[in-house]
Design brief:
Layout lengths: L3 H44 L1 H12 L6 H4 L17 E6 L4 E3 L11 H6 L1 E5 L2 E10 L6 H51 L13 H50 L7 H28 L8 E3 L1 H19 L2 E6 L6 E3 L1 H17 L6 E9 L2 E8 L21 H6 L6 H11 L3 E7 L3 E9 L2
Parallel strand pairs: 6-8
Antiparallel strand pairs: 1-2, 1-4, 3-4, 5-7, 8-9, 9-11, 10-11
The structure holds adenosine-5'-diphosphate.
Adenosine-5'-diphosphate (ADP) binds next to α9 and α11.
Catalytic activity: ATP + protein L-histidine = ADP + protein N-phospho-L-histidine
Pfam family, one: HisKA
Subcellular location: Membrane
Amino acid sequence: MNRLVVRLSVAFATLILLVTGILAIAIDRLADSSFRRYLAQNQIAESGLSERLAIWYAQHGSWDGAERLLSVGGMGGGYGQGGAQRPLLALADATGRVVADPHAIVGESLNATQRRAALPILVDQQVVGYLVVQAAGNRLSRAAELFLQRLRDIIWITGGIVALTGAVIGIAIARQLVQPLQHVALAVDELRQGHLTARAVVEGPIEVRRVAEAFNAMATELAAANQQRRQMIADIAHELRTPLTVIQGNLRAILDDVYPLSREEVGKIYEATVGLRRLVDDLRELSLADTGQLTLHRQPLDLNQLLAREAALFRELATVQGVALHVTLASEIPPVIADGERIAQVVRNLLSNALRYTPAGGQIMVTSTAHEQGVLVSVIDTGSGIEPTDIPHIFERFYRSDHGRSRAKGGSGLGLAIAERLIALHGGQIGVESEVGKGSRFWFWLPAA
Ligand code: ADP
């Protein structure tokens, strides 16, 4: 009973049976009374009562005393043949006021329905009164009884067929409604058992289709997240392996007296641990940003000031590398509301990347401009540039366009992924345009305060 298909079927079937049952009873009653009334009217018409009433009225000019004609003898021999009972009669005047009635209160007026059902009594084509068949007697002639019984049989058999067909159609509709839901439930079960490729068939009514579509979208996202998680674990394992191999190999060599236990050798091992530490710190920061646990200390910030300060930090390094570093800042830029330390971190990442991929003789330019939605910052270099096929991926975790070379240059492959998260957390956007051999322009904008 708790199954939806059973409940719907029972509801449909009950409703249909109830409706056809009530209809059949109503039609049965109506047929019975209409048929009796029809018989009575026929018999009255045949009995010549209305003609006698008309003659009475013509002679007397009123209905006074006419009730005599309605009594037993008044009906003449036409009624009562075949053992049927006499109908109850009432007489109303031309205005519809009841003037003779053995059972109701004389003086009442006929309503519209009663008047329509009444036999008009005509004198010189003028309606002078109405003969009303109030209720037909309950005993009919044998032939009439048989006819009525047959009519009733037809009503009930038809009612039964309609009810049965309706109930069957109802059950079929219930099944049809529930089936798509069952398909979704099957897909949910499959997904729960770990089959991430499980998808629901989109079918049935709009509401169920929406559920199936939402489920499919969720399953796709789940599969993508699962794939991303696996890839992330593989990447982390891979990234940890390189510095650990270096550390382990160097320590082994020292233990085996292949390398001397000198400051230089220990220094190399220390460098490898610095890389490891940076990787672990970056991973932690990224996971905090992903889970929304990174606290931003936002306050009004002058981006020009920040850019000038960060560029100054890189100037010496750039000079040593033979790269010219220019800063061009727009004088009229609105303040932004941001966490200065986080934005500085993004700028440092872009500057260190620019330096890393720009050979001696190249140039780096830092600019700020007013942007329609806030402030636009660009870090432009004349370095190696990025392959068009790599551009859509470089903000992904651990993505490096030139794997061995980038790692050798000290990148964790997480810098841009972190920058992207930080800028998004500030409500801004980050992007890149690049041409191989010519250089790159990394940009981000932050909304104005
Ligand atoms: P990494 O720590 O390896 O630099 P990032 O996330 O900062 O990681 O950068 C991802 C990749 O994007 C880099 O490995 C490099 O291939 C490419 N890239 C980033 N900045 C530049 C740039 N200025 N010029 C050329 N390639 C760049």
